[in-house]
Design a protein that fits this description.
The chain is mostly helical. It has nine helices and four strands, in the order αβαβββααααααα. A hairpin with a 5-residue loop joins strand 3 and strand 4. It starts with a helix and ends in a 53-residue tail after the last helix.
Length: 336
Amino acid sequence: MNTLRTAMLLAAMTALFMGVGYLIGGSGGMVIALLIAAAMNLFSYWNADKMVLSMHRAVEVDERNAPEYYAIVQSLARQAGLPMPKTYLIDNPQPNAFATGRNPQNAAVAATTGLLQQLSHEEVAAVMAHELAHVQHRDTLTMTIVATLAGAISMLGNFAFFFGGNRDNNNSFGIIGVLVAMIVAPFAAMIVQMAISRTREYEADRRGAEICGQPLWLASALDKIARGAERIRNPDAERNPATAHLFIINPLSGERMDSLFSTHPNTDNRIAALQAMAQDMASAPATQRQAPMPRQAGQRPSGPWERTAEQPPAEPARPKSNPWGRNPTGSKGPWS
């Protein structure tokens, strides 16, 4: 189903790209746009994740320069039955995170330094579990390619201002077609982003809460991230708005409503769904509570979010209210 959905999305984005090309340059512009879209689809499949990580100046880290953060991702990946993704840090004070990659074997997760500094250990675990849920659902390929193509369509609409309306082309729409391309193309690309993003966030919230075992940790994290995103500007995201739907919370300023024009569901609605999930888990009989992913024989729990099925909590655990109180990237972080 995800393969079919991705193919349909790529076809829709390609058709949109061709339509903008026709409005700018007539039939010749449409053919050129088709060739560009075909090349971009192929390029995006293999390289879109690298482009997105580069746009946000993400730095790959490991157990040497980000030991606690790396250990969280490693333990959660094992808990979810996923290969260990590449782990990145973004030197940005806004708390946020995203996942990218064409499949679970070539996935990457990225968190900002603001996320690690402002959230507790448990909340960071819940956020990374959410991102691993996107990897497990294979959302990352679709979301990353859409980010690349949406940015290209928006750029093509801007080019219309400079190169459109040329009397020598066979565009029968003239300056009207150019204006339509300038206005409608970025808007249409945004609509496509919303269509693939909002429902997937709810699913990733649910699965992420299952992976870490504590819905309230993710609920608390979403609240902190949303409040942080309101106060702290993310310049890299503002320069690359087509990538906004990749993040767990919209990193752009002014996008806080659960409306047609929001790339993310309303945060309060997401928190309410997680709180209801926590209540359901607390009230369920012990035999029906979800047990952790199976471990190998003799493997010990490596994170505070892991528990055994024989010792279910009496009530949903709440994260600590204080940050870690130390540099989660260790004594020598990647920018030291």
